[in-house]
Amino acid sequence: MLLEGLSVIEWSDDLASQFASRLLGDLGAQVLKFEPPGGSVIRKKGPMWPGQENAPEAGILFDFLNAGKICRSIDPQSSTDVAIFERALAGANVLVQSGLDAAFASGGLSVSQLRDRFPQLVVVSITPFGVDADAGQYQPMSEFVLQHHVGVAHAMARPVSNPEAQPPLAAADHEGPLAVGVCGALAAAWGLLVVQAGGKAPQIDLASQDFYAQVLLDDFSQFAQGKTKFSRDRKDNPNVAPAGGISWLLPAQDGFIMVSPREEHQWQRWLVVLDHPAWAGEAALCGSVAIRKQNWAKLRDLMGEWSRRLPAAELAARAQKQKVACFPVSTPAELLKNAQLHHRRFFDLLVSPGGGAVRIPGLPFQIVDSSGRQLLRERVVQRPRTEALESSNYE
Prior knowledge:
Layout: E1 7-11, H1 15-26, E2 30-35, H2 60-65, E3 70-73, H3 79-90, E4 94-97, H4 100-103, H5 111-117, E5 122-127, H6 143-150, H7 175-196, E6 203-207, H8 208-214, H9 217-224, E7 248-252, E8 255-259, H10 264-273, H11 283-286, H12 289-294, H13 296-307, H14 312-321, E9 326-328, H15 332-335, H16 339-343, E10 348-351, E11 357-360, E12 367-368, E13 374-375, E14 380-381, E15 385-386
Parallel strand pairs: 1-2, 1-4, 2-3, 3-15, 4-5, 5-6, 10-14
Antiparallel strand pairs: 7-8, 8-9, 10-11, 12-13
Helix pairs in contact: 1-7
């Protein structure tokens, strides 16, 4: 394994940091997760394991984020426990942390002291605004608020007809912090390469705000060129054409499809799929991309009358045969049956409390060794193991 023999320490209760250290563990490192008394709050966060809804520490999210880790509880107010934590840092290669300064303030341990006290330690700090954030201005906030504060939720909070009555949206699941976690794991791997090359162990300051802001490249450039007016009011925003004219979400007999005949030659091939409806010859309705953007809603309804008669898979197959980008819109249940994901051996099996296993998302990358053998695919992943803290024999 790539990181076999290396030790990672984690002090964190946010999703991004926990996922970052989980990925390092997946790559072969031993991950020791320290938790405050009572354990991580995410242990009790749903969804819960089937049949374990009322059991303590039965959260599937916690098990997913911390699979394969060893978990131990320490009290940052206890000098004995702090000493145990420091001994762990002295023998570790990486620390992934968020909230360490606040938790260990009375114990005299801070991120700024780590370089001098543990020179071998690659420190990855994952926080909303960075370890140097102005505490008076940038207070801790929920992921929902953070995504709106940074602006990344703009892509999800589409303009609406009544902004006062229709609240804004953020990511529907945990895709944001998990993406930040991937970035954190990559940063840690870079830090280890620096040490391997003979350099000093770096302290890496990863702010979620910075990560989200850098994905707004298109929005920044369009605004700089005067091409975008940012407004949640659909009526007040002349630039709004929700993908219409280049992409449509259409109903199918058993769900939805997304189709994107963006260029003129693609549109003509899409009309073949549609069996050349009578309205296709009306230049004022669909004679160019610009006209189709203007009439996107009417075209959506016309195409929807046809598409709702056929299953999504058949619609997609017909479109792809004509080399038009088109795919069924998958539900989570359908993704578990996705042929391409199974072809890539994407899903892992997470051991359940009863000894069975459920499919969970695997690693967001694939690794192949020199012989062509795939590593880290379709594994049986163990739930995190909670151990008692015993200072007498802990190293």
